[in-house]
Amino acid sequence: MGKDKACPVVLRTRQSLEILAFKHPLAGLQLVKGSVEPGESTDAAAIRELQEEAGITGKVIRDLGTWHSASTGHTWAFHQCLIPEDLPDTWTHFAEDDGGHEFQFFWHPLASEPSEEWHQVFKDALEFLKSRLAEI
């Protein structure tokens, strides 16, 4: 089964480990992720999605494994990305996808339970990442 979604994972440590997330104006709280184009590696797709959705340039430093979403039937490839500069606590980025939307970025503490604003598939993805990061 091919990996059809790539998810760049940007982490930082403040009081605890935090993951980069954003609020979609129509679809609640999400992680950056997108489709892998034909012939594209999941690494390359993760970097491209990070640029398109968040407006930041990073490089993949670690493969965090793959996860199959039972609810959507997609297989996600997670890649930890390193960003050269310190990112602000919050910012907005206008993403061209789907006619253009302004995404509001923030840091979600991995230890805290995702609120009802998170779509279930992203709650499941966070759960996978938490257990995966605990192993390494």
From TrEMBL:
Cofactor needs: Mg(2+)
PROSITE patterns on file: NUDIX, NUDIX_BOX
Gene3D superfamilies: Nucleoside Triphosphate Pyrophosphohydrolase
TM stretches of this protein: none
Top-rank taxon: Bacteria
Keyword Disulfide bond applies: no
Keywords for this protein: Hydrolase
Claim: Manganese is one of the keywords in the record: no
Any matching Pfam family: NUDIX
Start and end residues of each Nudix hydrolase domain: 2-130
Name listed for the protein in its UniProt record: NUDIX domain-containing protein
Source organism (scientific name): Pseudomonas yamanorum
